[in-house]
Amino acid sequence: MSIGGFLNGYDTGSIGAITTMPYFADIFGVLSPSLRGFTVSFLLLAAAVPGFFAGQFADRYGQLRIIQVGASIFALGAVLEAAASKLSMFLVGRALVGIGEGLWLTNVSVYITEIAPRAQRGMLVSIPQMMTVTGICAGYFTCYGSIHIESPMSYRLPFVIESICGGVLAIACLFLPSSPRWLLLHGRRDEALRALERLNVERAEAEKDILRPESQSQERMSTWKGFGALFHRQYRLRTMLGLFVLGMVQFSGIDGVLYYAPILFSQAGLPAGTSSFLASGVSAILMLLITVPAFLYADAWGRRSSIITGGLIMSSCMFLIGILYATNSVHADDGAARWVVIVTIFVFALTYCVTWAIVAKIYASEIQPARTRASANSIAQAMNFLTNWIVAFATPVFLARSTYGAYFLFGGLSLFTVLVLTVLMPETRGYSLEAIQDGFRRPPMNKVLTRLVSKITGRGASQNGLRSHVDRAATTMSGALQESEGSTALANEFELGSITQRIDLGTA
After folding, report:
1. Which of 171-180, 237-246, 274-283 has the lowest mean pLDDT?
2. Total Cβ atoms within 10 A of residue 377
3. In angstroms, what CA-CA distances link 140 with 146, 278, 332, 400, 493?
4. Crossing angle of helices 127-146 and 153-172, rounded to 10°
């Protein structure tokens, strides 16, 4: 299933180099910078459109079927790219590749989220991201080797590989079990039990989480009703949180670094050949190496701590580079500042791979309830495609107008993301998908305590008596939350000390 992540990364790592190959230019002509940018990023625009509806289709027909259709369309598009003799035909193939990717990319994460046991969910859901980085590295080295082929096969070979991998992904869907949670949601309990056996899910975990009555009692909704349900009051917070997370990870500026790293390194004073090597080869290898431990320890590190720590480091990197350029400290011919810029760019990219790249898709998938998980993740992934495209087009414009403006912008957006998620993001590591939903369904504790205090004061309780009642109520609530399998953050928020500090007993 993680072949889908590999295909995503492989295209990212190869398409830029392909458009600069001599035989590509002989057939399609030398592309202007704007046309090259449009050709490279056209996939993102094409992927965003089906991305809005892929989840609704998956809710109705199942994730595997939609992934299979998307992989088949992707393979067909890659064949057209390889066989194209005109740029218009090449762009049609590019559009089909994007449509296929938009259909299966989100559903791959949702499928793995739903079949994974809680103890390994973070690691398993992060496999596609590790395969994405592997694909980026493989795409670069494929082009590095194929450029020496003295025929049009030099640029066609990567597309041939893409089409083969897309076909493998489509065929693999025929042999994989459907999500037990999706089957239960559609009243197919016997098939869900067989799927659980094939997945080797422990019976105790299945009965406690997947097979409990609440998991089977939800109403089956139509495609459009399911889309509208995303913004109902009970689901609105989770939907907006998923949109925010997957959208803002791109506004950190990571794709500006990946797509335009040669420009960034050249701006710092490195020769063109050296900058291209550093941007493509070294960065791809380092990103792959650092993603491996991040994948292995995805369930050992908290989702919340990874987002906050990673965001602070990334925003600091952007601000540091911006300050160096704003103060004219970076000189192309000498000085240590240019090497500080280069090292900081690497630190930024590697930090993203270890934190936001791993956590964002895991978190956006697991906070959604079963009935809206696929739909919510599809529109969140579409948001991801759109913000990716915005960054890809805006970065060269910013760099042309200012050497430091883009860094301050991306640094500010990353810091803003950290501040928002510090307030709104509960920890989910180690909890079942059903327990996470229980945490979101609880009424806001501040309102519960307010009503409790009002009732107590209405009985004429003294200040000391009020404090005693509130202390006992707060202790009881905190203990109940900690014993349940809801969010740890929710339990910690209502510790005895924090509650008693919020209540003005004198006013009461």
Report:
1. 274-283
2. 30
3. 10, 12, 27, 26, 47
4. 150
Question: Which percentage of the chain shows pLDDT scores above 90?
Answer: 22
**Number of CB atoms found within 10 A of residue 401's CB:** 9
- Stretch 209-223: mean pLDDT, rounded? 52
- The reported pLDDT for the residue numbered 215 is 46
Confirm if 106 and 48 have CB atoms less than 8 A apart.
no
pLDDT recorded at residue 286: 85
CA atoms of 395 and 286, how far apart (whole Å): 23
Number of Cβ within 10 Å of residue 318's Cβ equals: 27
Averaged pLDDT for residues 124-132: 85
Residue type, 396: P
Which token pair is 18?
């392909």
Q: How large is the average pLDDT for residues 288-316?
A: 86
Place of tokens 């059903």: 434
The rounded distance, in Å, linking the Cα atoms of 7 and 98 is 11
Angstrom distance (rounded) from CA 178 to CA 214: 20
Instruction: Provide CB contacts within 8 A for 493, sequence distance 6+.
Output: 445
Asked if residue 391 lies in contact with residue 250, where contact means CB atoms within 8 angstroms, the answer is yes
Q: How confident is the model at residue 449 (pLDDT cuts 50, 70, 90)?
A: very low
Q: Is 221 helix (H, G, I), strand (E, B) or coil?
A: coil
Mean pLDDT of 197-223: 60
Per-residue pLDDT, 413: 94
The Cα 4–Cα 107 span in angstroms is 10
Residue 230 has what pLDDT? 73
H helix or E strand, kind and range, residue 441? helix 433-441
Which of 315, 296, 412, 407 is CA-nearest to residue 354?
296
| Higher local confidence (pLDDT), 430 or 502 | 430
Kindly report the number of other CB atoms within 10 A of residue 343's CB atom: 11
By CB atoms closer than 10 A (0-12, 13-18, 19+), residue 143 is buried
> What mean pLDDT comes out for the span 153-171?
95
Cβ burial 106-141 (10 Å sphere, 16+ → b, else e): bbbbbbbbbbbebeebbbbbbbbbbbbbbbbbbbbb
Do 267 and 405 meet the contact criterion of CB atoms below 8 Å apart? no
